[in-house]
Amino acid sequence: MIVRVETADFDAGREIAALRAGDPRVGAVASFIGTVRDVNDAAAVSTMTLEHYPGMTEKALAEIVTAARERFDILDALVIHRVGELKPTDQIVLVAVTSAHRADAFDACRFIMDYLKTRAPFWKKEVTAAGTRWVDARVSDDAAAARWEAKA
Amino acid sequence: MPDSSPPVAAVAITVRVVYLARLREAFGRAGESLAVAGNPPRVAAVLATLRARDGVWAQELAAGRAVRVAVNHDVVGGDTPIREGDEVALLPPVTGG
Description:
The structure holds 2 protein chains of 2 kinds. Chain A has helices at 12-20, 56-71, 102-119, 139-151; strands at residues 2-6, 28-35, 39-40, 43-52, 74-82, 84-86, 91-99, 122-128, 131-134.
């Protein structure tokens, strides 16, 4: 398991290659990359600052990955989340999962993202023409995570 | 208030309170040392102590506001007992990813 919180950008190809390197059990790799959009809630976003709660963040992400490993038949997983100042088109987060077959890789990748959105202590603050604002949590994100609880 | 139960001494402790993101800006500080009491002292006592300051504290921490509390990096409920030196963080709804 790899969990990193960092300001630097990441190279998804290199990270995924390292995750599955030398493991012939891997038959499927699923990944997700979240990026900064230029419009949120009908306002143009010029820059965004991502902050987190050091110490708790790494622990929360590790717990989410551990839950995914217990629930799905996966071989390994990687989460990289950036913090600091970002601008539209920048990469924010990378989740990658390896498994023998695709279904568990797809499901575990989505599970990790859904829980990351609702459990990991990150906060986005946007700069728009109207000023600076903290991004509101979305009800749809809670619903996405709750979907997994119903299936448990 | 009349109370027929035997008196029990409250325990006084000091915890480190941490304010994140929007709450840090609203309160104008990243954290503070806070004295709370109870038998045992619980998370709810921290919130009650802060709410009693009125103004922005009462507004941001009013019942129904979506504020989560983490003690030593684990999200917990208001009934959770806390101990001397614990780190009690107040978290607005998260928006990462």
